[in-house]
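Renewal narrative, Specific Aim 1. Our central claim is that a sequence can be written position by position from structural information alone. The example that follows is taken directly from our test logs and has not been curated for this report. It begins with the structure tokens describing the chain, in the order in which they were read.
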């Protein structure tokens, strides 16, 4: 099915909603639910790119539960992060303040000192009577921003449960910090994400005396890719398919882009060590493990008392490169780094979407993770905020066939921006160098058209979306070197 077409509008799926009411996923009528404030379940996944079934990013990826979630709501096929790094992306999403206004461009810049008065999404919900709770990685770093939550697990000073390590780390022999992959000889129940989901599931199965804002942060597929053996077994390394890569893909990239790609860093090390297939195996295995945990969350919601009145928002903080443009990780302004899977499911009875979101719909309008904050405000009928960026997606949730003339911004480092609309990606670096890609003809971004005068008017139209402000860099965190145990280093 063409990912650029919008499918299954509400008028064609009313029968499915009726069936779901009968079987108990939405056990009350819409009119009964209208009298209550909706709950919100936020599911955040770390470092997941478009390698999910419904986006088709990799033919071998197995994500039946993410696909199942997409079948229940609207899939945004052209969603992008505010920044291709964990800290600035999550800070922007959760505060409504983009990096070019906050100065939080990198992981090393703590966001709360830079924005002491920012009101996060859970804080805004708390002020409107919601119980706010979470577990796992929602904000970046060790602390989950204690003022944002009524309850956090493991605690308000620790965001995630510890993961077990394999008997020996540095399995791939590259000796790069955290850049490792391989199986761990433990059951799922020993993994940190499993413990996070267990607690989240307990909350979903309970009745609550007030509406809840519940955030579930899944750490995998963040590095290192250590998950139980059974997930690796699903992807035999001799059958793994590598990403499509053009050997001279950096030939038309300006020096500023090549510096982001760092081809002589991770990529050269992976290729030299013969680890490319095993790395892809580790990423696929970690995605499949994360998907299994998402399935547990959905099962808990569906079997509990809150299914009829809980909005689900699924997002990932940014994409990930596995050799495309001779680049690994995020930290770049190309499609693989900025594009994120995003799904919103609204049950029938939420007043702003009285029929619920259409089943299995998708839209290729350019949207941003920054849009989640204003969307939730409108869906839940909270007081609007005029100090946040983003645009409510409620019109697209009501009618995914709507076409927006809009572009969204991703920022990596001060004054480096990517502009993405339905068709084009335009990149301008701080030194003024440029890239331009036509996704209709070149979805892999192999041909930089920025220097072709034929596309001058296209560039001019995209340039007008660039932010006029570029805040100075926020203060960076000073970290003392941390000594690791011999066991943790794998010695």
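The sequence written for that structure reads:
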């Amino acid at each position: 099915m063409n990912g650029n077409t919008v499918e299954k509008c509400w008028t064609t799926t009313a029968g499915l909603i009726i069936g779901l009411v009968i079987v108990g996923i939405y056990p009350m009528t819409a009119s009964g639910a209208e009298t209550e404030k909706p709950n919100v379940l936020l599911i955040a996944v770390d470092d997941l790119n478009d390698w999910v079934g419904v986006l088709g990013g990799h033919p071998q990826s197995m994500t039946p539960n993410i696909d199942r979630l997409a079948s229940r709501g609207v899939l945004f096929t052209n969603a992008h992060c505010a920044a291709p790094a964990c800290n600035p992306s999550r800070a922007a999403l959760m505060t409504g303040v983009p990096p070019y206004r906050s100065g939080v461009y990198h992981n090393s810049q703590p966001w709360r000192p830079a924005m002491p008065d920012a009101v996060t999404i859970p804080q805004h919900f708390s002020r409107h009577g919601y119980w706010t709770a979470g577990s796992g990685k929602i904000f970046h770093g060790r602390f989950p921003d204690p003022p944002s939550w009524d309850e956090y697990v493991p605690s308000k000073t620790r965001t995630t449960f510890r993961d077990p390590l394999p008997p020996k780390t540095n399995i791939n022999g590259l000796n790069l910090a955290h850049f490792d992959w391989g199986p761990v000889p433990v059951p799922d129940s020993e993994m940190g994400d499993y413990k996070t989901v267990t607690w989240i599931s307990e909350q979903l199965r309970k009745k609550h005396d007030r509406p809840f804002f519940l955030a579930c942060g899944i750490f995998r597929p963040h590095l290192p890719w250590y998950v139980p053996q059974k997930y690796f077994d699903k992807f035999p390394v001799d059958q793994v398919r590598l990403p499509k890569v053009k050997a001279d893909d950096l030939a038309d990239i300006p020096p500023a882009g090549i510096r982001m790609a760092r081809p002589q860093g991770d990529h050269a090390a992976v290729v030299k060590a013969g680890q490319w297939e095993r790395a892809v195996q580790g990423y696929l295995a970690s995605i499949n493990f994360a998907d299994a945990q998402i399935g547990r969350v959905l099962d808990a919601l569906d079997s509990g008392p809150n299914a009829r009145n809980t909005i689900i928002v699924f997002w990932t903080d940014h994409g990930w490169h596995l050799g495309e443009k001779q680049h690994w990780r995020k930290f770049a302004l190309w499609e693989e780094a900025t594009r994120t899977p995003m799904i919103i499911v609204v049950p029938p009875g939420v007043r702003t979407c009285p029929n619920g979101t259409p089943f299995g719909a998708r839209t290729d309008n350019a949207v941003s993770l920054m849009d989640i904050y204003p969307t939730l405000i409108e869906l839940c009928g909270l007081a609007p905020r005029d100090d946040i960026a983003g645009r409510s997606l409620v019109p697209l949730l009501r009618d995914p066939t709507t076409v927006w003339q809009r572009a969204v911004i991703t920022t990596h480092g001060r004054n480096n921006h990517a502009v993405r609309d339905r068709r084009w990606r335009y990149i301008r670096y701080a030194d003024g160098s440029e890239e331009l890609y036509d996704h209709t003809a070149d979805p892999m971004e192999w041909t930089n058209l920025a220097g072709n005068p034929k596309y001058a008017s296209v560039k001019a139209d995209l340039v007008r979306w660039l932010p006029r402000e570029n805040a100075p860099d926020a203060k960076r965190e000073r970290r003392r070197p941390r000594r690791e145990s011999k066991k943790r280093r794998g010695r």
